[in-house]
Write a structure and sequence with these properties.
Belongs to the annexin family. The protein is mainly alpha-helical. It is built from 18 helices and no strands.
Length: about 290
């Protein structure tokens, strides 16, 4: 759609909309204009290159995407910004946070196989226990290696075995053994492994709870998941909080066009074209 309108207008549609809109509504409309992977590449670029690195955004995207999705995001990032996403992350982060982000980005996890080796799962659980609860200090790289290279089905078995060995959940051990952004990254991997729809439901809820709203988180997650699993996230949200996602968005008053973020691409197309007409942009070559 963007290319069609750019051809008609002889100018970039996104920049035109930016000049005519403002605030949260502008952010929503611009987000809807981007192809999915290009939009996620933009969010990562803004998180890395903006004022202060927004580790939470980087963690959220890298920990929740499949290998195939990450490849598309990296490709879009390089095409759009002329730089390598992995190198940019390395230059803007350090230590074990850098290690886990790069490991996630490299997509070493097998996200297609449902096969679980019980012996390896038990060994991984024992290794995690030996790397944390059993010793003074923590072997962070052991946690990173297992969390970032094993499949989700395998990790679920590892978490069960770990509970038996340590008599506590892997989440509780991560909280006691790590802190800050590294803790957030590891916990995000675990949450996405256990139930990715619940993870996004919680993330959306937190973005609207309390004083003010995290509008970037709200818009990014709804727009990026709208063509993937938003209905499942909405169902999980209702189960967790006893109210619909759309009703909470309306109550929070964080977005005035709630209907737009839940509609299909075709309806969005028609809406934005209507918006352009209302802004009196002439849809014809000059």
């Amino acid at each position: 759609m963007e290319h069609l309108v750019v051809f008609l207008l002889h100018q970039d549609l996104t920049e035109t909309l930016k000049s005519e809109l403002s605030g949260k509504f502008e952010r929503l409309i611009i987000a809807l204009m981007y192809p999915p992977y290009k939009y996620e590449a933009k969010e990562l670029h803004d998180a890395i290159k903006g004022i202060g690195t927004k580790e939470g955004v980087i963690i959220e995207i890298l920990a929740s995407r499949t290998k195939a999705q990450l490849r598309e995001i990296m490709k879009a990032y390089e095409e759009e910004y002329g730089s390598n996403l992995e190198e940019d992350i390395k230059s803007d982060t350090s230590g074990y946070l850098e290690r886990i982000l790069v490991c996630l980005l490299q997509g070493s996890r097998d996200d297609m196989s449902g096969f679980v080796d019980p012996g390896l799962a038990l060994q991984d659980a024992q290794d995690l226990y030996a790397a944390g609860e059993k010793i003074q200090g923590t072997d962070e790289m052991k946690f990173i290696t297992i969390l970032c290279t094993r499949s989700a089905t395998h990790l679920m078995r590892v978490f069960d075995e770990y509970q038996k060995i340590a008599n506590k959940s892997i989440e509780d051990s991560i909280k006691s053994e790590t802190h800050g952004s590294l803790e957030e990254a590891m916990l995000t991997v675990v949450k996405c492994t256990r139930n990715i729809h619940r993870y996004f439901a919680e993330r959306l809820y937190c973005s609207m709870k309390g004083i003010g709203t995290w509008d970037g988180t709200l818009i990014r997650n709804i727009v990026s998941r709208s063509e993937i699993d938003l209905n499942l996230i909405k169902n999980e949200f209702k189960k967790l909080y006893g109210k619909s996602l759309s009703s909470m968005i309306m109550v929070s008053k964080s977005l005035s066009s709630t209907h737009l973020i839940f509609c299909s691409h075709a309806h969005r197309h028609n809406y934005i074209i209507s918006l352009i007409k209302n802004l009196r942009i002439v849809l014809s070559p000059k």
